[in-house]
């Protein structure tokens, strides 16, 4: 990890979580999912929530050892460094999930608005048979929903971060390590 601070738009970020530590967290999530799904007779859907979850889903997929299908969906609730509270369904699902078991792959759960709205949409509108939630990161101090999070890679304090898929106004997704806002 480079020790230097980085600048994205008008904000400065400092090094926070190393790439190797992120991969360790993903190893843990993969172990738990494999444990629960290794003898499945269906073909579960791994649902990548675009764009933030692309790196997480890519790493997770390489570690899963049962037959699965990858589907993507694009949602958005963040503007700048604040959750807007409303979840916009920007792009529909890339494939039908009716009657399927779905594992949502989310980069980070903050208030939980996004993940809860998505889970409801998958069950009520899209007819998924079961929906589980896998998230690389969780901000437990902010998460305020009764909904169970099935697989959590790592818990972090409430601070705005970028890197490994996470962006600040679309910048920072390609950074290998995670950086936190320097205030
Ligand atoms: P929630 O709906 O409040 O749980 O927010 C979830 C979404 O907000 C995530 O999928 C991210 O896209 C975005 N988000 C939440 N926290 C951060 C952060 O610290 N940095 C960048 N994006 C974040």
Task: Give the topology, please.
Blueprint: E1 6-8, E2 11-17, H1 19-37, E3 45-50, H2 54-61, E4 69-79, E5 82-91, E6 101-109, H3 113-125, E7 130-138, E8 151-155, E9 161-162, E10 178-181
Parallel strand pairs: 3-4, 3-6, 6-7, 7-8
Antiparallel strand pairs: 1-2, 2-10, 4-5, 9-10
Helix pairs in contact: 1-2
The protein binds inosinic acid.
Residues 52, 77-78, 83, 106-115, 160-162, 166 line the site of inosinic acid.
Features:
alpha/beta; binds inosinic acid; 183 residues; 3 helices; four-stranded antiparallel β-sheet
Radius of gyration: 16 Å
Number of helices: 3
Strand pairing plus helix content: what structural class? alpha/beta
Overall pLDDT confidence = 94
Q: Write out the strand line-up for the largest beta sheet, numbering strands in chain order.
A: 5-4-3-6-7-8
Count of distinct strands? 10
H/E element string?
Answer: EEHEHEEEHEEEE
Question: Helical content, roughly?
Answer: 10-25%
Major sheet size, sense and barrel closure:
6 strands, mixed
Beta-strand portion reads: 35-45%
Envelope shape: globular
For the terminal residues, how far apart are their CA atoms?
20 Å
List ligands, each type once: inosinic acid
**Spans of at least 5 consecutive residues with low confidence:** none
């Amino acid at each position: 990890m480079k020790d230097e601070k980085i600048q994205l738009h008008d904000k400065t970020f400092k090094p926070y979580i190393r790439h190797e530590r992120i991969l360790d967290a993903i190893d843990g999530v993969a172990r738990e999912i494999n444990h629960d799904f290794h003898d499945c007779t269906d073909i579960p859907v791994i649902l990548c929530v675009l764009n933030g979850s692309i790196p997480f889903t890519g790493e997770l997929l390489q570690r899963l050892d049962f037959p699965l299908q990858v589907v993507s969906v694009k949602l958005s609730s963040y503007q700048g460094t604040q959750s807007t509270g409303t979840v916009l369904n920007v792009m529909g699902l890339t494939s039908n999930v009716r009657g399927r078991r779905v594992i949502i792959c989310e980069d980070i759960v903050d208030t939980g608005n996004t993940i809860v709205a998505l889970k409801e949409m998958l069950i009520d509108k899209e007819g998924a048979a079961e929906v589980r939630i896998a998230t690389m990161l969780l901000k437990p101090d902010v998460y305020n929903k009764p909904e169970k999070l099935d697989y959590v890679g790592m818990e972090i304090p409430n601070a705005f971060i970028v890197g490994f898929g996470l962006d600040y106004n679309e910048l920072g997704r390609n950074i290998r390590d995670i950086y936190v806002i320097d205030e």
